[in-house]
Structure formats: structure tokens, C-alpha cells
Specification:
Layout: E1 4-7, H1 11-18, E2 21-22, E3 31-34, E4 40-45, E5 51-57, E6 75-77, E7 94-99, E8 101-107, E9 115-121, E10 128-138, E11 145-155, H2 158-163, E12 169-171, H3 179-183, E13 196-199, H4 203-210
Parallel strand pairs: 2-5, 5-11, 6-11
Antiparallel strand pairs: 1-3, 1-8, 4-5, 4-7, 7-10, 8-9, 9-13, 10-11, 11-12
């Protein structure tokens, strides 16, 4: 799964990379991102590809009564998005989520009491795009409208089967050459086989900061 990511590139780099303009520069931040905080992150949606928007991590379907569902919609299994009630209404609302890394934990014992944290990235920590779905949700209590998104996941490849050895899943990363095709409901072309993974020091210390 993917609940913790990293986006450390500046705004100008994102705009140049995606040939798009930031819609709300004041919302732009860099650094580590914890999905369980439901932050507003940069995304590029299929309907406004010339704009880098900001949406809250954790997709909310139109029928959601409140935001409590978000902890379970940070990720969506690509195999079942057309079946799950939370996602099937957004299956054609595709987006790209810029990042330059994400974090996973390798279980060091059968029950996962000891874990090793890994930073997973492309060579040189190059900017890449998670494949995602988005939706616009209205809070009936406040009348406020939220843009929300989820990151798609798939079965782990050889590298991620070793790193994420508990659930053996990985986020879907789009081939840069196929990003526009993905947004326009074309076929999925993944880029995950180019990933690298670096173990990070002091697993116990990291767990105190990132425990799920």
C-alpha cells in the first residue's frame, strides 16, 4: 500500500515537468506526506490538465455522509475500482499525483513487531506520477466542497515483494510518456520496474514517528 510519500521538488520544477500552472500557490508545500493527516497535495486531473490543483488525500464518494471514510480510501486496488462502492463512481476521473519517493516497511519478523523503513524512488530521486482517481465531494453540514483523491495500487513486483513483504502491494507509477494517455482514459503503462529502494537507519526510531 502507499500511505506515506515525499514530494521535495519546488513549484517551478512541477510546473515545467507537467506543463501546467499551480492553481493555488499558497497551498504548495514540499516534504514528507502522511496520508492519515489527509493533507492537500498537488494533483493533475483529466478534466483540467493545464492546471496543478490541490486535493485532499483520501477519496470521498458523492454518497459519503462525512469525512470519516477517508482513512480507508487513501489507496484503491486497481483490480477492483469498478466494483467497490467507494471508487466505481470515480473510475473515469483519473489524475496524476506528483512525488519523488514513498515509504514502505519491511517486516523483520512474522508478526511485524520489528520493521525496517525503506525510501522507494526512481534513480536520482527523479519526479514521477502516481496514478490516481479523484472526486469532488460536498459536506452537507458546512456546504464546503472538497476535491479528494486516492492512489491506485497493484500487485508488488520483484523489488516491492521484498520491501513490502507483508501485503505485497505497490502504488501504480505511470510511465512519463503515457501520462496523457492515462488521463484521457487510455491504457495503463506502468513504470515501477525502474524503482530503487534504500533502507533507512534506526527502524525502531522511525516506527515511533510513522507508526500506522
Amino acid at each position: 500500500m502507499c500511505f506515506h510519500s515525499k514530494q521535495s521538488k519546488d513549484a517551478q520544477t512541477l510546473e515545467k515537468r507537467y506543463k501546467a500552472k499551480l492553481e493555488s500557490p499558497g497551498l504548495f508545500k514540499t516534504g514528507d506526506v502522511n496520508g492519515f493527516d489527509h493533507p492537500f497535495c498537488a494533483i493533475i486531473t483529466n478534466d483540467r490538465q493545464e492546471i496543478i490543483q490541490f486535493a485532499q488525500w483520501g477519496l470521498l464518494p458523492t454518497w459519503a455522509k462525512d469525512k470519516s471514510l477517508q482513512n480507508s480510501t487513501l489507496n484503491a486496488k486497481i483490480e477492483t475500482i469498478n466494483e467497490k462502492p467507494s471508487f466505481k463512481g470515480s473510475s473515469s476521473q483519473r489524475c496524476l499525483i506528483p512525488a519523488d519517493g514513498f515509504y514502505e516497511w519491511q517486516w523483520l519478523d512474522p508478526k511485524g513487531k520489528k520493521k525496517q523503513k525503506y525510501l522507494v524512488h526512481l534513480p536520482g530521486e527523479e519526479l514521477f506520477s502516481f496514478a490516481g482517481l479523484w472526486n469532488c465531494w460536498k459536506d452537507n453540514q458546512t456546504g464546503q466542497t472538497y476535491h479528494t483523491y486516492t492512489i491506485l495500487t497493484t500487485e508488488a513486483n520483484a523489488l516491492m515483494s521484498v520491501v513490502h513483504n507483508s501485503k505485497k502491494r505497490m502504488p501504480v507509477i505511470i510511465n512519463p510518456k503515457a501520462e496523457k494517455e492515462w488521463l484521457e482514459n487510455g491504457k495503463l503503462e506502468m513504470f515501477n520496474d525502474f524503482l530503487e529502494a534504500d533502507p533507512l537507519k534506526s527502524a525502531s526510531e522511525q516506527m515511533s514517528l510513522w507508526d500506522e
